[in-house]
Amino acid sequence: MASARILSTAFCRPQAYSKLSTPVTRSFNKFHTLPKRSFRPIPNISSKIPRRTFTTDPAILQRPDRDTSIRKLLYAGTLFGGALLGTHLMFNTPSRETALHPEDRSYLNQTFAYTGAGVLIIGIASKLAHNAGWSYRLMSMNPWLVMGGGLALSLGTMFATRATNPDNTFAKHAWWTAFNVSQALVLAPTFFYAPALIARAGLYTVGVMGSMAFVGSTAREDKFLYLGGPLLAGVAVVALSGLAPLVLPVGTRALAWTESISLYGGLAVFTGFTLYDVQKILAHARYARQGLMKKDVVNESIALELDFINIFIRLLTILGRNDRKR
């Protein structure tokens, strides 16, 4: 199921705001007679031509005043609190009868900590790769080559991480780090977007996943585990719709529909996956407490990282489209 989410991530390639300009060449087919003058040799100026550097705009172009900031903060807090309460009442009635076992709570908190660390590694590695020019080279490659190479690298490191025994701490964390770096290499072009849009998409993603994690952790045991089958079918549809830009001509009506399915349908599917994964982690915590399976919070964090990436990419693309329409 996690591999299906990697497939969906690979098919949703963010569009760059800026592209490399194509060099223009000129040819002269006539010789012009130059006046007789004494010409001095042109010095070698190649060493004086500045090298191309990759820069990004500052994250904050203009700071709002204090009243505007407080008003936006209150609005965002009210909206988030209302959405959280509505989601809780909608999905968690009735809620959990007994409190979480301390060991189960610790297992869940450790998984969240690894998820946050993995997202941080992906963000830093993506930024470093983008500043080094990797994004420009990646966007100029054949899309099928990028998709195939990204899938092979992501799936290979993910399966190696999952297959490694959790008692082998060094190898487990090495493969987990390699998995995060592989995701960063594929996601580096997202830094073509404005920093403000990236920050907003990240904040919204944290809010969505935080809400779903709260609902999943306070719901009754195994209440949402039945969602596994429908969500897997949904992510298959999203992945197939993500293939449309590679096979359909640009500008067709079918392409617009498939892109909407990939964005908005994928956003709904991976929001549901967050709810499902949190309940699955709690079920695994109970099994580990009962001695039925080994405790492995690294493997559990991979699923939540993939949920975060898929939600973030779609929110960023939606925000970017809305920003261009203004």
In round numbers, the mean pLDDT is 76
Number of domains: 1
Helix coverage percent of residues?
Answer: 55-70%
Listing every helix as H and every strand as E from the N terminus to the C terminus, the arrangement reads HHHHHHHHHHH
- The coarse silhouette is globular
Q: Please state the CA-atom Rg, rounded to the nearest Å.
A: 25 Å
How would you sum up the major sheet?
Answer: none
Give the termini distance in whole angstroms: 38 Å
Number of helices: 11
Class from helix and strand fractions? mainly alpha
Count of individual beta strands: 0
Strand content: under 5%
Structure description:
This protein has 326 residues and is mostly helical. The protein has one domain. The chain contains 11 helices and no strands. Helix 1 packs parallel to helix 8. It is globular, with a radius of gyration of 25 Å.
List the helices and strands and how they pair.
Blueprint: H1 2-11, H2 66-91, H3 102-131, H4 134-139, H5 143-163, H6 169-187, H7 195-218, H8 228-242, H9 244-247, H10 253-289, H11 297-325
Helix pairs in contact: 1-5, 1-8, 1-11, 2-7, 3-6, 3-10, 3-11, 5-6, 7-10, 7-11, 8-10, 10-11
Quick recap:
By secondary structure, this protein is mainly alpha-helical. 68% of the residues lie in helices and 0% in strands.
